[in-house]
Predict the structure.
Amino acid sequence: TKHLIKNILWTTAKNFTVERGRQQIEELISTWDIHESWLHHSEFLEEEELKDSKRYHYRACWGIPTRRKPIPQATASVYFVIVISKFKPDTTPVEVFYRLESTRLIRRPEQCQFREKWLKDIIENKIVCRERL
């Protein structure tokens, strides 16, 4: 199935703050086609200083609480990195990448539409793994 890739207008480097980054990640997440039973929280993790850029790391942790199990059996995390180049003008929008927990594939929001199935797969794998132990 062809998915329409939804993205947002990202802030410029000069207007970036850690909190603005978290708000924009929430804005991006709101464009994802995910069932309302999924709940998440997002948080800032760390700032990383590199030779050519500054990177801001965030995490969104997902789960499906129910009445019978208000604390989910397992959660799935999506890790975001917001990159501010030291060489591009500060009027340039920040660059954003994300990856799913337990994978190394790095995705860009403008190139790949997020799929709810990815979260389900992580949680199902964790539950299967726990049951084997």
In short: Residues 13-132 form one domain. The CA atoms of residues 60 and 104 lie 16 Å apart. The first helix runs from residue 18 to 31.
